[in-house]
Amino acid sequence: MRAVLPKSPTVSDHFDIVILGGGLNGAALASALKNGPHSIALVEPHPPSPPGAEATWDSRIYAYSPGNVEWLQSLGAWRDPVRAQAVYAMKIHGDASGRLSFDAIDAGLSELAWIAENGRLQSALWQTLAGQPNVRIIQAPASAVTWDAGTNPRHRLHLANGDSITADLLIGADGAQSWLRTQAGIGFDEEDYKHIGVVANFETEKPHRGSAFQWFRADGVLAYLPLPGNRISMVWSTPPEHAAELQALPPGELARRATEAGKGVLGHLRCITPAAGFPLKRRRAHEWVRPGLVLIGDAAHTVHPLAGQGVNLGFRDSRLLAEVLASGGNPGEIGRLSAYAARRMEDVASMQFTTGSLKKLFAREDSLTRAMRNWGMSLANQIQPVNQALTRHAVL
Ligand SMILES: Cc1cc2nc3c(=O)[nH]c(=O)nc-3n(C[C@H](O)[C@H](O)[C@H](O)COP(=O)(O)OP(=O)(O)OC[C@H]3O[C@@H](n4cnc5c(N)ncnc54)[C@H](O)[C@@H]3O)c2cc1C
Q1: Is the Cβ atom of 312 under 6 angstroms away from ligand 1?
Q2: How many helices (H) and strands (E) does the chain have?
Q3: What is the CATH number of domain 12-394?
Q4: What distance in Å separates the CA atoms of residue 270 and residue 251, rounded to the nearest whole number?
């Protein structure tokens, strides 16, 4: 009788650090650790697709702070295929006469922010990992399916492709619905903003000259973010019924509504990517670190996009975590992970508080609140030190 051969062996490897999720935050952290003392695995079931044709624009477009762009440059990721537009001015309109504007020149800065596509930046980050001897990318279909939290080595992950890997430090960069957070039984606070972020891109009739615009309106918050050329990305954070209506409109009618809501500041708009909608929630995981485990980016916290800060907070997680891990040694040691979490707390808490409060302030319909919020905006605009302090906080 023939012997039954064992199944072909699967990969069983140990890494000092395993990062789950290769979105912007996971890929940026892997890139920041690529020249460090640890062996790294990046596990991602959906690697970025190659950049599309010149005329194709990603519907997920974000604002990046100059501080984070400088960091991405140092990683070698702020380059082709990224297409970026600098923001030189921001014009914010209240729902009455309130106005607040920020200007890079007034604040002594070369720009206030940069706007770029999610997909192209993710591709550029992945390119920085190619050929790095201490980084292994484990791609589709490699999503983590089971996790044993052991002691030595601390974690064993069984992947959907049959591989089994172990790690001293497991990092959850697996997004707002984090699988790792759920597996670890880490709870989270959640507040439903009762807004959907409706996004679409448009060609503009008039040049935007690097200006971003935002309107606090009775139906939510509308933003125009400048893209290279005569193009903008729209983010309209609005209640679900209105969002569903906007998403169902034919492109011409959507462009007409977006033009009208933006008071025609850039002339007529022409829709170049269809509308997509993202439910908006504030979340904060109850724990960001445990021995041998860290949650970063949306897995740890999410904010309302009205200040364009979600991924910026995540990049600041990765910047600090990479710095803390650079000295080598056991990466899962809880003392330094706790120190990392303590240093990240204030930034995240203040951003969640600010964006949540602004959203609530502009949701109130009584006339006194309406007058006060518009007066407050104009006041902040007129007092130069206040205006400059707000600008400086946004560029970190
Ligand atoms: C409408 C809107 C506008 C926004 N605008 C801005 C802005 O202007 N500026 C800004 O800073 N932020 C903005 N944000 C926030 C930003 O989109 C997020 O903060 C950011 O994309 C989160 O990145 P991430 O890498 O943490 O998570 P994700 O992008 O969600 O990536 C998580 C990755 O993990 C992978 N994954 C999931 N499960 C597993 C598993 N079990 N194993 C392995 N991998 C797994 C997924 O495939 C995915 O690639 C906006 C958000 C919205 C909704």
Answers
A1: yes
A2: 10, 19
A3: 3.50.50.60
A4: 8
